[in-house]
Amino acid sequence: MLAIVNVILPVFALMVLGYSAVRFRLFPSEGVRGLVMFVNNFATPCLLFYAMATSDFSTTFNWSVIGSFYAGALVVFASGILISQHLFKDRPGESVASGFSGTFTNTVLIGIPILQRAYGDDALVTAFSIIAFHASMLITLGMLVMEFARRDGAPLHKTLWVAFQRIIANPLLWGIALGVAVNLLDIGLIEPVNAFVTMMAAAVTPAALFGLGGALNEYRLSDSWAQSLAMSLLKLLVQPIIAYLLMVYVFHVDHEVLRYGVLLAAMPTGINAFVFATYYNRSVNVATNTILISTVLSVVTVSIWLYLLGL
Fold first, then answer.
1. What pTM value is reported for the model?
2. How far is CA 14 from CA 18, 207, 243, in A?
């Protein structure tokens, strides 16, 4: 429990700092949007580029664990969209952003430290094999579904063309694509480039969390707490349960290995849910509150998963 608190506490500290700075007018509220644009268009693409460029693609991938993790994510994404549309009466685009907020896992900021503390470095090989596809797969899927949801009766070919245009113009996916190309072509990063990219990547966490905290001033928890709670429960409970059932009863994955994938699936919602929502300006309040609620609840739920999986 103390290890989990030690990981989550700095996250809250950055969010509280951003919230307080805007609340007490130490940081201009209009500056939050500019900070978010910096994270979306510059810092995060550098982070994704560096992650892809330096990943070891030759590492053995356990496709049973990876497939189970993403099957749970896809089921939760679809469920979140349907719940948002039919229970909370969201418009199509808003429901996609809401569903995405219950899907995207905080793999790096919370997932890796907890996995490492719980199971040691042996768990990180499995974690990185999942993370290698995480942003690229889910962000691409989210963008495609968003474009279909916002088509407003347009012909299918026009929707596909608009989706394609938006995808190729998305700096997040450019970062991923360029990183993969550098990796596959075995291009080494010279020191000035490496230093520049790592410095930009290092800005993602503090800037995004500070911006997230500042953005909370624009929303009240009461405005979307029920919907955010529903998305949080999908993320913290449903996604890891699906992953666990698939690994145990379908793929028969060894318990020592499956617990890495299940625990990673049980992590709270990641910052990219906020990035995605702000990029499309859809359900930003749900995304921010889902990150907040799921992170708070994860102190309890992750502890339960650690107990059930046998720490």
1. 0.77
2. 6, 9, 31
For residues 17 and 309, what is the distance between their CA atoms, to the nearest angstrom? 35
The answer to whether 224 touches 202, Cβ cutoff 8 Å, is no
Q: How many of the other CB atoms lie within 10 Å of CB of 3?
A: 14
Dihedral angle of Cα 76, 78, 81, 82, to the nearest 10 degrees: -110
Strand partners, 269: 105
**Euclidean distance between CA atoms 190 and 287, whole angstroms:** 38
Distance (Å, whole) CA 244 – CA 252:
10
pLDDT tens digits for 3-28? 667 766 787 788 889 999 999 999 99
> Can you name the CATH fold of 2-7+30-309?
Na+/H+ antiporter like fold (1.20.1530)
Domain ranges of the chain: 2-7+30-309
- Tens digits of residue pLDDT in 101-115: 999 998 877 888 888
